[in-house]
Amino acid sequence: MSIKKHIPNTITCCNLVSGCIATYYAFQSQYTMALLFIVIGAVFDFFDGMTARLLHVSSPIGKELDSLADDITFGFAPAAIVFSFLNSFHIHLPFVPFLAFIIAAFSALRLAKFNLDERQALGFIGLPTPANALFWGSLICSLNWMTLFEPYQLPDYWLYVVLALIPVSCYLLVSEIPMFALKFKTWGWKGNEVKYIFLLTCIPMLILLGISGLAAVIAWYVVLSVVTGYRK
Questions:
Q1: Phi-psi sector, 29: left (phi>0), alpha (psi -120 to 50), beta
Q2: Angstrom distance (rounded) from CA 176 to CA 101
Q3: Which among 14, 41, 44, 152 has the fewest CB atoms less than 10 Å away?
Q4: pTM for the predicted model, two decimal places
């Protein structure tokens, strides 16, 4: 019984370690590897909760550990990716790249709110931290790949685009916008229309855009959630 009790926490620690490795690669400007370990962390994050439910060994310490691991993998790691990207520009104001770490702070706030909010059993209020992390990792990877086809650095306007997106993503993390979760009570079309539409439209995005399609998928998820919430 004692071994079973520690299995979910072990998986959660694997999530945390994945986030640490992702952060290392982020500071080395190896954005593809950083994104890969964020995805690996997301897989561990999915299975730790599932394992705890299957083994019936959920505990308060597991809940706290899960939030800590999530803030490393889905808060600090994407913030480090954005910091490293902003630091690659020749900026006269040296403090500007450090604005990226606001993402980590708002991710921690979002996780704390999630732990206390009983409204998020079947859906989300605000953007989930894994989705935010995948958006940033995919976006920065895409921008970095663009430099492979350019003889010089990215145009400076991308600096301002990324800086403008930071407060937007931070707002979405802690907003009161209802966002659907991919949880199915039944497999029928009725009641699951939005989920099926989302899944079916994501497939061509990922096929056509590849890894950069992840950012488009997350943006589409936010838009679809907002439109659905407005109609309701």
A1: left
A2: 22
A3: 152
A4: 0.89
